[in-house]
Design brief:
Blueprint: H1 13-23, E1 27-31, E2 43-46, E3 52-57, H2 61-67, E4 75-83, E5 92-103, H3 107-120, E6 133-147, E7 151-154, H4 156-161, H5 171-181, H6 183-188, E8 201-208, E9 211-218, E10 221-228, H7 236-247, H8 250-255
């Protein structure tokens, strides 16, 4: 009887969604049923409860549309793109869509929203609110996550109950450092790949508390592979231990 290889553990959908939101990648907002007002916010921020703040130029048509619908009849979708921190043939790692009601808050509420965002994500662009830019608020009623792991629908309560990956704000710098300065280290991970993929170009794709994700750019296309840690990690010391274990550190191997 053949034993099936166990699939590495992965973060749950809500945790992955929170991580994409926390990383704050490129965003686009689209009113439901209307592609003409598709907008790239000057700044966006998704709060832990699934609501989102959007900063748009005063003259953007979406601001006028929201002003004409003060009771929240305007619905829209915020799309947040999670891109790899290194240059890849296909850079998008995941997409998060938040669907809900778009509102243009009154000046006092807009100011409070700016302060709320500034506490979590200080950014000089927030100073433009009320001075050439308007704050819109998205009150999410549903979320959809699509990435290499799965496609999942989420309720705002599920999103709010999860926590983002503890390393998500450091991941970009770490992976770029691996790509530029430690190609030999990345190469050591080849031994974990299926034999059929070992001839491809191996690239660092992602890092979270459950393991390392690699992208194999091969002649027949791109293939994503997850290499799991022996256990989920919670801090940099545990992460360092697991990474050295994957690289085959003799001292750690002797401790098993």
């Amino acid at each position: 009887m053949h034993e099936t290889a166990r699939r590495p553990a992965t973060p749950g959908p809500a945790e992955r969604a929170r991580t994409i939101a926390k990383r704050g990648g490129r965003a686009t907002v689209l009113p439901s049923g209307d592609t003409s007002d598709r907008a790239r916010p000057l700044l966006h921020h998704v709060h832990a409860d699934g609501t989102a703040a959007l900063l748009l130029p005063d003259e953007h048509p979406l601001v006028a549309t929201a002003w004409q619908n003060p009771r929240g009849e305007l619905t829209g979708v915020l799309e947040v793109t999670d891109s790899a921190p290194v240059r890849l043939r296909e850079p998008v790692r995941g997409l998060l869509w938040l669907t809900g009601r778009l509102r243009l808050p009154d000046p006092e509420t807009a100011h409070a929203e700016v302060l709320r965002v500034a506490e979590q994500r200080p950014d000089p662009r927030l100073l433009d609110a009320g001075h050439g830019a308007s704050v819109l608020r998205l009150e999410s009623v549903s979320l959809v996550l699509a990435d290499a792991e799965s496609t999942d629908s989420l309720e705002p309560a599920e999103f709010a109950a999860a926590e983002p990956d503890p390393f998500c704000l450091h991941e970009d710098g770490w992976l770029r450092h691996l790509e530029l300065s430690h190609r030999d280290v990345v190469g050591l991970l080849t031994r974990y790949l299926p034999v059929r993929l070992r001839g491809g170009h191996l690239r660092p794709l992602g890092l979270d508390r459950y393991g390392v994700r690699l992208r194999v750019e091969a002649a027949d296309g791109d293939h994503d592979v997850r290499i799991g840690f022996s256990r989920p990690v919670e801090d940099s010391e545990q992460l360092s231990t697991e990474l050295r274990r994957l690289m085959g550190c003799p001292f750690l191997a002797a401790q098993r």
